[in-house]
Design goal:
- The chain is built from two helices and five strands, in the order βαββαββ.
- The chain has a single domain, classed as 2-Layer Sandwich (Alpha-Beta Plaits), CATH 3.30.70.
- With about 90 residues, it is of the alpha+beta class.
- A hairpin with a 2-residue loop joins strand 4 and strand 5.
Length: about 90
């Protein structure tokens, strides 16, 4: 069985994170607000964790009005999370 894929959306401001979280909820898409992992370079302490299941819908939702949103795929290497930057 293939393990679930998870992604992180990282932001430059709390306002951006909260706005995107609201957009996800409006569209019925899952996303969990979490503290930004230390290994991710972001100005904001909040990020959104997503499953890979709705990734394309989420990409379409995050528009150009949200500046400098970064997407990371979470890989696990020897029990440690590794964050791999993805195109958004």
């Amino acid at each position: 069985m293939k393990p679930k894929e998870y992604y992180i959306l990282a932001f430059d401001s709390t306002h951006q994170a909260i706005r995107v979280e609201g957009q996800l909820k409006e569209k019925g898409l899952e996303g969990e607000m979490i503290p930004t992992p230390r290994d991710i370079d972001a100005s904001c302490g909040l990020s959104i964790r997503l499953s890979g299941q709705n990734l394309e819908k989420v990409k379409g939702l995050v528009d150009s009005s949200v500046n400098r949103v970064r997407l990371y795929r979470i890989d696990v290497d020897r029990g440690k999370a590794v964050y791999v930057k993805q195109e958004l």
